[in-house]
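dude i think i finally got it to work??
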Amino acid sequence: MPSDLTTSNATSPRAANRLKRLLPIGILAGGIATFFALGLDHYLTFEALREHRSALMGFVMQKPVVAVLVFILLYAVATTLSLPGGALLTVTAGFLFGITLGTAATVVGATMGAIAIYLAARTAFREILTAKAGPMLQRMEAGFKDNALSYLLVLRLIPIFPFFIVNIVPALLGVPLRTYAVGTLAGIIPGTFVFASIGAGLGSVFDRMEDFSLKGALTPEVTIALIGLSMLSLVPIVYKKLKAG
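look at this
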C-alpha cells in the first residue's frame, strides 16, 4: 500500500509538469484556430484598411493613447502566434500614427511578441520547435556562435530566413535573452521605418483610388540600403576572423 502511494506521489508531479508544458501549446494553438475560425485574416488586407479608414482614424483621434496601446498588444499577439500580415500591420502603423510613432509602436509590439516566442521556445516548445526549425537550425548555428548579436542583426535586417525561424532559433541555440532582445529591437528598426514611411503616404493613395502593393513600394534603393546596413552588422564578425587569423 505505501508503495502505491509513493508511485502515485511521484507520478503526480510529473503529470502536473507535463500539463504545464502543454498548456502554452494549447493556448497558442487555440489562438491561431480562433483567428482563422472568426475570419480575421480577411481584415488583413489593404482593401479592408481602405474600407474602415474613417472609423480607424476617428478612434485614433479620440483616444490616441488607447489606440497605440491596443496596436502594440495586437502586434505582440500576432508576432507570438506567427500570424500572417506583419508587413501590413507595420504599414498600418505608419498610416494611423505617422512615421515616428508608428515605427516605435511596431518595434515595441514586435519585440514583445518575439520575446514571448523566445521564452516559449526555451520551455514548453523546445522539442517541437527544434524539429520544426530542422536544417535551418544547423545552418544558423555557426553564425550565432561567431557573434550572436551581429548575426542576429543581419537576420533581422535582411529576411534570409523566415521571421518565425529567426525568433526561435536563438533560444534553441542558447543565445542570452538580453542579446536576443537588443538584437531584435535594433535590427527591426530600419525595416520598420521603411514600412511605416510607406504607410504614412497610404492616405494619398486611397484618396486617388489607386491600387497598392507592398512589392511595388519596396524600391531597389530601399532594398540596397537595407543590405548595406546588414553588411555593417557583419563588421565585428569579419574583424574577429581577421584577428584570429
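The chain is about 85% helix and 0% strand.
im so relieved honestly
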